[in-house]
Amino acid sequence: MIIAPSILSMDFSSMESQLNQVKEGGAAWLHFDVMDGHFVRNLTFGPDLLKGVRKLSDLVMDVHIMVEDPAYFAPVFMDAGADGITFHIEACKDLDEVRSILAMIRSKNKRAGISLRPQTPIESLYPILDECDMVLIMSVNPGFGGQAFIEDSLKRIAELRDEIQRRGLSVLIEVDGGINKTTGKACQDAGADVLVAGSYVFKNDIPEAIRSLM
Ligand code: DX5
Ligand code: ZN
Question: How far is CA 62 from the centre of its chain?
Answer without folding.
Answer: 6
